[in-house]
Amino acid sequence: MSTKGLWHYIRSKEFWNQVKVMLAIFFAFIFASSILLHCYTRQNSYVEVPNFNKLTLRQSLELAEDNNLRIEVIDSVFSLDLLPGTVVEQDPKAGTKVKKNRRILLIVNATMPQKVSLPNIEGVSLRQAVAMLEADGLMVGKISYSPDIATHIVLACKWKGKKIRPGDMIYKGSFVDLTLGNAGSLKNVIVPDLKGLTLREARKQLTLSYLNTGKVYYAKTVENALDSLNSIVFKQKPAAAENSTLPMGSSVDLWLTVNKDKDAQ
Predict the structure, then answer these.
(1) Among the ranges 9-23, 103-117, 224-238, 243-257, which has the highest mean pLDDT value?
(2) Domain that holds residue 129
(3) The whole model's pTM is what?
(4) What CATH number is given to the structural domain containing 121?
(5) pLDDT band at 262 (very low <50, low <70, confident <90, very high)
(6) Mean per-residue pLDDT, 193-214
(7) Fewest beta carbons within 10 Å, which of 32, 83, 212, 235?
């Protein structure tokens, strides 16, 4: 093509139409590439927060490292339903999308329970005493009876075999033994059905039925402390048969397993 012909072609509409098409393709490619690159880098800069609930601090550190996150313990509480030193709460919550290297704030269950003062439960009913003790993180241990006209009213409290008074400091989560009044002979009470309850729930049910928790046996499925927290009653003695009764203050033995099916023991 001669110089004159080339110049004529460059000035033609056909040439500039082709240039426009090529520029459009070029910018479209650049735009698409930037979008894809942005999505790729964004996707790889965010991670999903795992669930640290009930993990130990060591397990939490390992899990955080595996997910390119950092953890920081900001507080501790005391819960009877969790093992000491395990995570109670986390922020952000599990499943939240966060940037890599983000700090995850944890609240853990205290390894040593704090002390609380014994509430003034002398002179109140057993049911009221249970509620008041629970409000302060305490539980009823053994109940016994002493002759008194104030039937089922708390006369005295003991902790670790020693008499304690309202205001005395004891560890949160402790069992407080109660002496109740009883006018006359001990009456018989119905044995409650405890199957399917946790040990803590069974203890409370027995207490409110004016009975005590006897020996506690664990099936082979209960292999560690966490299993014991999650175990449930699958057998009791005496059984909760129709019209089954015991004198007030009697004990009921319990058998626990991590499986609801007693055949899985």
Answers:
(1) 243-257
(2) 113-184
(3) 0.66
(4) 3.30.10.20
(5) very low
(6) 95
(7) 32
